[in-house]
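[scheduler] slot 2 assigned
[scheduler] job type: sequence-to-structure, two independent chains
[scheduler] chain ordering preserved from manifest
[runner] begin chain α
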Amino acid sequence: MRATFGVPHLTTHVLDATVGAPAAGVDLVLGTVDGEVLATATTDADGRAALGPDVLPRGDLVLRFETGAYHRSRGVPTFHPFVVVAFTVSGTEHLHVPLLLSPFAHSTYRGS
């Protein structure tokens, strides 16, 4: 069962498509579009992380995934040194930003 939060709370799940497994050890930075850092985290053994203040500010935020460092740690060349996902906080719902990752492509969507 998914946790329920009364205020915006951000989670992510990073999967490495090249090995068909969670991407553990991906560093994350949550920030404003102006560059203010709100929180940092690292994905766990299941490729998951929760981050951010208890109350996310309304408006546009960015979640930066340090994918280049992740691939380098595995000895894999990569095209993307990092992936930035921009999104808008407009209410109090739980926000989930998953990332499907490979060395030369990525995809994301609004999760639940």
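[runner] end chain α
[runner] begin chain β
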Amino acid sequence: MDSIRIVVADDIEDIRNYFRMILDRETDIEVIAMAGSGEEAVEVVREGSPDVVLMDIEMETPLAGIDAIGRIKAEWPEVKIIVLTIHEEDDVLFQAYGAGAVDYIVKTSSIADILNSIRSAHRDRLYMRPEIAEKILGEFSKLQNEKNSLIYTLNIMSRLTDSEFAILTSVYEGATYKEIAKSRYVEEVTIRTQVNKILKKFKMRSMKEVMGSLHELKVFDIYKRRAQELGVK
């Protein structure tokens, strides 16, 4: 199995070295380059073709990392970018997701959490974590909390289990219950049972109604256009 090729971008050398140290211990991860600025990050991605980039935000400018994320995703959309952060400011993280980041890591996170984020991003297995949904919800706090509002829908989605979110995503992408069951190696009745649980959480009578609301509100577009990338594994 090929290693996950990583670029670490941070303007503080000690932090770069820390991440290299913990990642180099893993047999399935290889740090191929490090960068001290957003501009340098773009260059090393161009030269090294990594799978995942760990990207600090504030480097040569306060939002250098976000600018680099946008440039990298424009040229190499297959590269997964995870934000490195100390302070979890809602507006900055929202900008990072809008630019194309797939997750964020607090620099003081446990090694297990850091490794899990990297491996999940590489395998396209990142689902909407409650804390991510909360960040998104913060950007829309002025909306009315009514049935068809964006804040209401995001609040429900933050309470879905990973399995329910994956099924919802597959239905959104056009898969049938039979196809979803086959991909998940379960009986179709199991999928229908989970669909019923989803409907109860949305307080709707059919998935067609749920899909109509999601399309209208462009929920998956907000979550970094993940609807086109995330599939049921």
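[runner] end chain β
[qc] chain β: The longest helix spans residues 188-202.
[scheduler] slot 2 released
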